[in-house]
Amino acid sequence: MSDVDVPELTKAEIANRLRAMGVDRAGVLLVHTSFRALRPVEGGPLGLVEAIRDVLGPTGTLAMPSFSGSDDEPFDPTTTPASPDLGIIADTFWRLPGVLRSNHCHAFAAIGPYAPVITGDPLPLPPHIPESPAGRVHALGGQVLLLGVGHDADTMLHLAELIAGASYSVSKHCTVMQDGRPVRIDYEENDHCCERFSLADAWLRARGQQSEGRIGRAYVRLARARDIVEAAVEQLTRDTDIFLHPIGAGCAACDEARRSISLPLLNKIDLAS
Questions:
Q1: Is the distance from CB of 145 to CB of 53 less than 8 angstroms?
Q2: Where are the beta strands (DSSP E) in 4-105?
Q3: Which of 21, 64, 108, 205 has the lowest tally of Cβ within 10 angstroms?
Q4: Range of the domain at 194
Q5: Preceding amide of 45 cis, omega within 30
Q6: 107 HSE (CA, 13 A, CB side)
Q7: 187: which strand partners?
Q8: Whether this model's pTM surpasses 0.90
Q9: Residue 11 resides in a domain
């Protein structure tokens, strides 16, 4: 179905649905979104941002991921586009007047009273430690809105992996400016394909901690950051690699993560036999 066949969502309709789902007025809200799943929207990407801010009110704080996605280019918070993977909403948001953006390549952007807290930390390595934008949203008791995307886009689950002490990692690097020249920094990150982050749906539903519904064509999830992390840590404590695809599933990203675990890749098969 093309956009011309779908009624345009008004900003008021979006705001009313978000209120009904439980978005906190004057709260802290981290948004991951796919505009393609939601459009057409009155006012386009800017209209969606305005609708969300209307729900939060003047004392609410809106945050979005704003990282560059480029490992080899130094990051400039005033010019570097947000990664195409984040979509047009994220790339629109950081450019708006009054929005603050982290001064590092794992940036978030935010506007509102807590924007300096969310965006003020230096380069976090790995990217989702407690002293990171995602970690600050968690500490502030914020909510996470998944608008047209699933938990595979949910940065809180990477924070949960670190809190739970997940033993897998993959080698990454980024490039920063030091003394006027680009310098490569190598680090290890708890990364994988993230498809199995979708398990969080069932965990949060079982706890009654996730509000769900549709806004236009988009499926929407809303949960508190602390609830997401608590539910995931509980599961990771039982099975540290629950987010990794099983051996032999054909997932190169998860296989790479498994290779970093000190025990052999077949340890779980051996223990279960």
A1: no
A2: 28-33, 61-65, 100-101
A3: 205
A4: 3-245
A5: no
A6: 33
A7: 172
A8: yes
A9: yes
